Automatic annotation (TrEMBL):
Gene3D superfamilies the record matches: P-loop containing nucleotide triphosphate hydrolases
Protein name: AAA family ATPase
Record-linked CDD domains: ABC_ATPase
Organism: Candidatus Scatousia excrementigallinarum
Domain AAA+ ATPase, chain residue ranges per copy: 24-545
UniProt cross-references to PANTHER family, sorted A to Z: ATP/GTP PHOSPHATASE (PTHR43581), ATP_GTP PHOSPHATASE (PTHR43581:SF4)
InterPro entries, A to Z: AAA+_ATPase, AAA_GajA/Old/RecF-like, ATPase_AAA_core, Bact_Antivir_Def_Nuclease, P-loop_NTPase, TOPRIM_OLD
C-alpha cells in the first residue's frame, strides 16, 4: 500500500489542519521563512512515523493527525474481495493521536438484496385483498339483523359461522370481522413498508416481521329459512298457502345468492392470504440464505482483516530516519564526547546505530563475514578479523562515497579501531588526518547522511531539516539530485530548506510554509502547476523561486522595472507600507499571459497594474498573439484586481508623473513615447522635489491597490 497523504491536525504552531501529499517518485520540499513552522511539520511527522515513546521532543505538545493510504491492485485482491472501504475515494484512513493510532478503514459489506419483485407481489396481494374484504363486508351487511333489509319483516333470520354455530348477525359481529380483516391487512402492508426501495440491506432485516400468526376470519352464511305466518295475519294480508310457499322459494333463492357471494368473497380473501404466506416463505428463504452466506465468510474475512491490519500497522510505523543540523548527527564536535551524541540520537534512527549498521550491511551484502561473525558484536571479533573487516570497509565502501563536491579537498575516509571502538577519520589532500568529530559541521552532516542513506530501503522515510545549511551551492545541487534518486527507490523523502538550490527544478510537490494569525499554513505547488510553469517560463528556473517563496504576500504584477521603481519610491515618500506586497516585474507583453494564468488559478491576494494601451493594441499585434483576446477578456472581468493606468489609448504609468522640466522622464524617439528615468526617481528624497499632482496620482493608485498607510509606530 502507498502513503498518499498526511493531515497534521495540531502540533505547536500548527493549529488547523496542514495537509502533506505524497507523489510517487517526488521529494516533498518545504520552503518558507524562519519561524514559519517548517521544523514543526518535520517534528510532527517524526512523532507520527516513529511511534517512539523515547524522544527529546517535548511530550506536552500533542500531535493529532490522519494518514491516508492507497491500496494497490494486489492489496484489493488479497484483502478486500468482500470488504468495502469507508473512504469514497478508496483511501485507507488512519487516525493518529500520540502513539495511539485508531485505524478506521474497513466495514462489513452491506449485503443488499433486490426486493422489487417482493414489493410488487405484495402490492398485488394487497389490492386483491382489499377488493375481496370490501365485498365480503358489503354482503354481510345485507344480512345484518339490526340493519334495514328485506329480512327485517321476519321474526328471525338464522346465520351460521364457519363452525356451524347459529346466531344473529348484528353490527357487533360485523365490526369484529372488520377488525380481523384489518389486522391481516397490516401484515401485508408491513412488507410494503419494509421493502419500499428496490434494494434492502440484510443487516436491516428483522425475521419477526415475517413470523406473525395468521388472523382468523369467520365465514358467515344464512341458513335457509321456512317462513311461518299466523292464519290471522295471512288472511289479513291475503296470503294463501300457495303464496307463502312461493315466498319461501324466493326467500331461499335470495339466501343462496347471498351465500354464494359471501363464499366467493371469503374464498378470495383466503386465496390472497395463502399467496401472502407463500410470499413470506420465499422472502425468508432468500434472506436466510444470504445471512448464512455472510456467516460462512465471516471467519475468512476476519483472518484477512487481521493480516491486513498488521500490514497497515507496519506501513503506519515505517522505519523513519530524522536528520537535522546538529542534534541528530552521528558525530560530536567535542573529542571528549565522541559517541555520546551518537548514542543520544539513536532514537532519531528507530533505535538503530547507522554508523555500525551501515558497515555491517556492507559486509553482509559482500559476504565478507565468516561463520557467526558480526560487526554489531565488535568486541567479540578476533583482532585479526577486526583489522581485515575494517580494511574491506575502507577500500570497498568508504572509498566509493567521497562526494564530487569535496574531491578536491578530501583524499579518503578511513575507519580505525581505537580503544576497542570504531573511529572515523578524514584524510585531506594535504595528508592531514582529522577525526570526523573535529571536522566542519558540513562534513559531519554529510557523513551522517551518507551512512543513513546506505541503510535505508524501499518503504522507509527520511526527514531532513535544512540539508543545505552548511553546504555550498554545488554540494546542495548534488544532494538534491541524490535525494531525488532515493525517491525513485521507493523511499519517502521530506526536507525543509531556505535554499533555492534545493528546490526541485520542476517544482514538483513543493510546499510554501508561512505563519499567520491562525498558525502555520501551507500552499502546495506541483510539477503540473500552471502558475509555476508560467513564472518559470517568464523568469527562468532559478529566479522563479523569488516569487514562489513569497506567495503568502499580495502579488503585484507590473510591466517593467520603471514601474517597480516608481511604486517603491512614491510609497516611501507618501508613507505607504509595502512589506506585505511582492512586486513582480513582467517584461512588457508577458504581463498579459502571467496575469491571465494568475486570475484563472484564482490567486486571492493579487493585483495587476497595466498600461491602458494594452486595451488598444493594433490588429497586426492581435494576429501575432493568439491569446490576446482571451487574456483581455479575463482581465476585464476582474476590475477589482486589474488597474489600467491612463485615460487615453496610449495611457501608461508615465502619465502619473507630471514633469514639465523632463527631470524624471525622457522621450523615446524610436517608440515615440515618454519613458521614466528610474535613476532620477531613485534620487528623490523629499516630497517637495515633485509636484503635488504627481503625489496625488500615486496616492490614488495606492488606494486602488489597497496598500495600507504606515502606522506612526
Amino acid at each position: 500500500m502507498q502513503l498518499k497523504q498526511i493531515n497534521i491536525l495540531n502540533y505547536k504552531s500548527i493549529t488547523s489542519p496542514v495537509s502533506i501529499k505524497f507523489k510517487e517518485g517526488e521529494v516533498v520540499t518545504l520552503i518558507g521563512k524562519n519561524g514559519s513552522g517548517k521544523t514543526n511539520i518535520l517534528e510532527a511527522l517524526k512523532r507520527i512515523f516513529t511511534n517512539s515513546h523515547f524522544t527529546t521532543i517535548d511530550r506536552t505538545d500533542h500531535v493529532k493527525a490522519y494518514y491516508y493510504f492507497q491500496l494497490t491492485d494486489e492489496d484489493r485482491e488479497k484483502y478486500f474481495q468482500a470488504i468495502e472501504l469507508d473512504e469514497t475515494d478508496g483511501l485507507i484512513k488512519v487516525e493518529y493521536n500520540d502513539n495511539e493510532p485508531t485505524i478506521r478503514l474497513v466495514s462489513s459489506p452491506a449485503i443488499q438484496i433486490n426486493v422489487r419483485r417482493f414489493r410488487e407481489q405484495a402490492e398485488t396481494i394487497l389490492n386483491e385483498y382489499k377488493i375481496a374484504a370490501n365485498k365480503y363486508i358489503s354482503n354481510l351487511k345485507k344480512i345484518e339483523v339490526d340493519n334495514t333489509s328485506e329480512f327485517i319483516l321476519y321474526t328471525q333470520v338464522d346465520v351460521q359461522n364457519d363452525k356451524g354455530s347459529l346466531t344473529y348477525l348484528d353490527s357487533w359481529h360485523i365490526q369484529e370481522t372488520q377488525r380481523q380483516l384489518k389486522e391481516q391487512l397490516k401484515s401485508i402492508q408491513n412488507i410494503l413498508n419494509t421493502f419500499k426501495d428496490d434494494y434492502f440491506k440484510i443487516e436491516d432485516y428483522n425475521f419477526s416481521h415475517f413470523s406473525s400468526n395468521l388472523y382468523h376470519i369467520e365465514l358467515h352464511t344464512i341458513v335457509e329459512q321456512e317462513l311461518k305466518i299466523s292464519p290471522i295475519i295471512a288472511k289479513s294480508l291475503g296470503i294463501t298457502k300457495k303464496k307463502l310457499e312461493s315466498a319461501n322459494i324466493r326467500l331461499n333463492e335470495n339466501i343462496r345468492n347471498i351465500n354464494r357471494a359471501l363464499h366467493d368473497s371469503y374464498n378470495s380473501i383466503l386465496a390472497q392470504i395463502k399467496k401472502f404466506e407463500r410470499l413470506k416463505e420465499e422472502i425468508k428463504k432468500v434472506f436466510y440464505k444470504a445471512d448464512d452466506d455472510r456467516y460462512a465468510t465471516q471467519e475468512r474475512e476476519e483472518t484477512s482483516r487481521n493480516l491486513f491490519m498488521q500490514e497497515l500497522n507496519n506501513a503506519v510505523f515505517s522505519n523513519c530516519y530524522y536528520i537535522d543540523n546538529e542534534n541528530t548527527l552521528l558525530f560530536s564536535s567535542s573529542p571528549n564526547k565522541q559517541y555520546l551524541t551518537q548514542q543520544a540520537s539513536i532514537e532519531n534512527f528507530k533505535s538503530q546505530n547507522p554508523l555500525i549498521e551501515a558497515f555491517h550491511n556492507f559486509l553482509l551484502t559482500k559476504k565478507l563475514y565468516k561463520d557467526n561473525e558480526s560487526l554489531l558484536k565488535f568486541n567479540e571479533l578476533e583482532p585479526s578479523r577486526r583489522k581485515t573487516l575494517i580494511l574491506h570497509i575502507n577500500k570497498e565502501f568508504l572509498a566509493t562515497h567521497i562526494p564530487e563536491f569535496d574531491k578536491n579537498e578530501i583524499k579518503e575516509f578511513v575507519l580505525k579501531e581505537e580503544n576497542n571502538q570504531l573511529s572515523l577519520y578524514i584524510i585531506e589532500n594535504n595528508n592531514t588526518e582529522v577525526n570526523v568529530n573535529e571536522t566542519s559541521l558540513g562534513r559531519r552532516w554529510y557523513l551522517t547522511y551518507l551512512l543513513v542513506k546506505s541503510i535505508i530501503k524501499s518503504g522507509d522515510i527520511l526527514l531532513i531539516d535544512e540539508p543545505a545549511s552548511f553546504l555550498h551551492p554545488q554540494a546542495q545541487q548534488e544532494i538534491k539530485a541524490d535525494l531525488a534518486d532515493l525517491t525513485k527507490q521507493g523511499i519517502t523523502v521530506i526536507y525543509a530548506t531556505h535554499s533555492p538550490y534545493m528546490i526541485p527544478e520542476n517544482w514538483g510537490n513543493v510546499y510554501n510554509v508561512y505563519n499567520t494569525n491562525h498558525g502555520t499554513k501551507i500552499h502546495q505547488f506541483s510539477s503540473d502547476d500552471e502558475l509555476v510553469a508560467a513564472i518559470k517560463q517568464e523568469l527562468g528556473v532559478k529566479r522563479s523561486a523569488d516569487i514562489l517563496f513569497n506567495l503568502d504576500k499580495t502579488l503585484l504584477l507590473v510591466e517593467g522595472l520603471a514601474d517597480e521603481t516608481c511604486i517603491r519610491k512614491f510609497a516611501e515618500l507618501l508613507k505607504y507600507d509595502l512589506s506585505n506586497y511582492k512586486i513582480h516585474v513582467c517584461d512588457g507583453d508577458s504581463i498579459l499571459q502571467v496575469a491571465y494564468i494568475c486570475l484563472k488559478l484564482g490567486i486571492p491576494k493579487l493585483y495587476i497594474m497595466l498600461d491602458n494601451d494594452n486595451k488598444y493594441k493594433p490588429e497586426r499585434y492581435k494576429q501575432t498573439h493568439s491569446t490576446y483576446s482571451e487574456c483581455m477578456s479575463e482581465l476585464t472581468k476582474h476590475g477589482d484586481k486589474c488597474i489600467f493606468i491612463g485615460n487615453t489609448e496610449n495611457g501608461c504609468l508615465e502619465d502619473l508623473v507630471k514633469d514639465e522640466n523632463n527631470k524624471f522622464k525622457y522621450f523615446n524617439t524610436r517608440q515615440q513615447t515618454w519613458k521614466i528615468l528610474a535613476s532620477a526617481i531613485n534620487k528623490i528624497t523629499d516630497q517637495n522635489e515633485v509636484c503635488k499632482e504627481t503625489l496625488s496620482n500615486f496616492e490614488q493608485l495606492f488606494n486602488e491597490l489597497n496598500i495600507p498607510k504606515l502606522t506612526n509606530n
